[in-house]
Amino acid sequence: MAREVTQPDDEALALGGIGECLVLEGKAGDAVRHLDDALEIFRRLGMRREIERVTRRLAGLRPSA
Length: 65
Fold this sequence. Notes:
Layout: H1 8-24, H2 28-45, H3 48-61
């Protein structure tokens, strides 16, 4: 709905929430996709707190190199 009414901040928050739910379900791959999408929007909007939060979450989900 947020996407349809052009509310990118709400869209990003929804994507982040879906990502967090997927983490809890043990679906890290799906979670990363949603969190990456949320992060892209947060960056575009300059939402620093959310950028930091999602970046930390993604760091914990991705295997270290």
